[in-house]
Specification:
Layout: H1 2-21, E1 26-34, H2 41-52, E2 61-67, E3 69-73, E4 78-82, E5 97-101, E6 105-112
Parallel strand pairs: 1-2
Antiparallel strand pairs: 1-6, 3-4, 3-5
Binding site for Ni(2+): 2
Family: Belongs to the HypA/HybF family.
Organism: Bradyrhizobium diversitatis
Length: 113
């Protein structure tokens, strides 16, 4: 489960920000996760709670904003929404797609005391 390692990285980011900005408690972490990022949002929430224990983020909620996967279809020359990398263009059926969005995974905001 790589979500555990990803959550450890998020807690490290939060702790670095706490040192830099001098806050003592994190109430919420807002995380953007793209549909093509290979990360399961529900697993992230479960893992975050475990990893955040006994850290500045203990008890903080993990709010996940999911973004759609998007790709440029070379066959029909349009931007389309996709749920997985291996699926065809929903408009023309071509597999000639160039991913343009939905791979993101970033900390967007922190709610702190």
């Amino acid at each position: 489960m790589h979500e555990m390692a990803v959550c450890q990285g998020i807690v490290e980011i939060v702790e670095d920000e706490a040192r830099t900005r001098a806050f003592s408690k994190v109430k919420a972490v807002c995380l953007e996760i793209g549909a093509l990022s290979h990360v399961a949002p529900e697993a992230m929430k479960f893992c975050f709670e475990a990893v955040a224990a006994r850290t500045i983020a203990q008890g903080a909620t993990l709010d996940v904003v999911e973004t759609a996967g998007t790709a440029w279809c070379m066959a029909c020359s349009r931007s389309v929404e996709i749920k997985r990398r291996d699926e065809p263009c929903p408009d023309c059926g071509s597999y000639q797609l160039q991913v343009t969005g939905g791979e993101e995974m970033r900390v967007m905001a922190l709610e702190v005391d």
